[in-house]
């Protein structure tokens, strides 16, 4: 049981914070505080909690105020994992400083982001110098996608100047201008490329400096991706040890999908073949260097032979993939293997490839160790070349491991038991553009093994954890322990201030062409009703068709996802509304959650159709296949609950403060005419409903 002393500490902290900030305590917030404190504080019961907290509950204050005193009393680290960098920064720069300032709780906190969010000084230096030995610049140009032109050079020079005069800390999220993806990739690194403590720029490294305070911090703010990366590496290598930590997963409904992404693997034909060809050239250029450093000629010959075998076997295997993709009667560019079982000839090729890649890794590792040892004793003249060589070898090893994972999955696809996997291929035109994929279907087994069985306790929270009014879908997806406590906290906002309208549509979204035509007809009137409008599409094609049809009528008022970044769209939208100009956002799924546009910024949410997942999603298709094989209804068990969650997220964009009001228009009559639609309708907040169909 939670001790009375801890109860009083939590109550006092909450009272002090609300008094200092003149906040009106909300019943739902108090309820959430109690649930979180009891989950982490009761040593005799489950330390796992899934709590759905409606918009406006004040989740951040609630879980922080509740968890911090308990974590400190039990000598645990508190790890708060959010879904996005924006939420991380809100915690670090706004929420936690205010809680620390006003609650009376003395604690320290630290932000933890992955390497890809920080400038790599080593890569920037190589770029500016144009060094021929720059790792990943001469090798694998298809992946490096280096930016070209004067603008990129000016950006690189500006970054170096800003870091040099301490006006910028190397955090790419704080760079004042929007950065193109190619620029970001050119100046960032990953664990396979990073030289770590051997890097000549280690003292100024943004990533390592950001890591310095993690061990001492009481609270670590991070994201789902980094948490999962840590667990995949074994846990405790990036963040604190799981056994000594409490975890809070904010926007927890995204965790299962993130997990599948982390444990999936893939290989691309053109990229892989280019890598092998480049590797061969690299070893030819380093032949003398290795001989001079006591690498036996027969060892180098074995590596060369292995890479030649890899090159030939890779060509043969992707050639077989090409045949399988083209030996079909349909025109689809992808091929999913039924029940994840790969055709027997391809399994044999995959097994051979896996073994060759394993041998490749075994032979590369000693060379990497040799170069690492040579680097320790290198003088200034040799150091740069050896650094680049070590980096390239590290990349080769990482590539070998990735290839092993993919081909091992394909090779073992007929083995019974274990976690079910989806396996598929696709191409974009020719044999050089074939991609092979493998992904676990269920996140629950992975999360159970790597996360829930390791941590001291965890809270999962979001405004949308239940589907069709139940936690069952969440429990199935995430594998949370059976004794996990389940709780719901209603939003303090008056849902009746939002009107939910379903017009009497002639068309059905199951006929995309007719539905799009009717949307082109109806949207002009709907878009004129309010100042700030958000239009959400489930199909990029439909979004583009509507944009082309309406651009001449609405011009600059339209802000289109894909034309501008999400941050740029939101900033421009707010700017236009502030100038009393109409603004309309056309967005896809990413605009249906995590977007905060209160008041006039969003008075009308238009949803083109019920947000069912794309029918060609191979993981969902494989999941449905397994359910149907068991005699279950995949549509009702998988598709409908997922659509219900997505619709709730989309509806949550309307009412963001207690004074907000507006309209949600769903242009899909299936929510009223179909049994599954009525089930979804019943779980929506208590809007003022106007069902015209």
Structural account:
The structure is a single chain. The chain is of the alpha/beta class and 693 residues long. It has four domains: 4-112 and 214-260 and 456-489, Rossmann fold; 115-210, no CATH class; 264-438, no CATH class; 495-691, Rossmann fold (3-Layer(aba) Sandwich). It has 24 helices and 18 strands. A seven-stranded parallel β-sheet has the order 3-4-2-5-10-1-11. A seven-stranded parallel β-sheet has the order 14-15-13-16-17-12-18, sandwiched between helices. The longest helix is centred in the middle third of the chain and has 33 residues, at 344-376. It is globular, with a radius of gyration of 27 Å. The model is unreliable at 132-145 (pLDDT under 50).
Could you give a short description of this structure?
This protein is of the alpha/beta class. The chain contains 24 helices and 18 strands. The two termini are 53 Å apart.
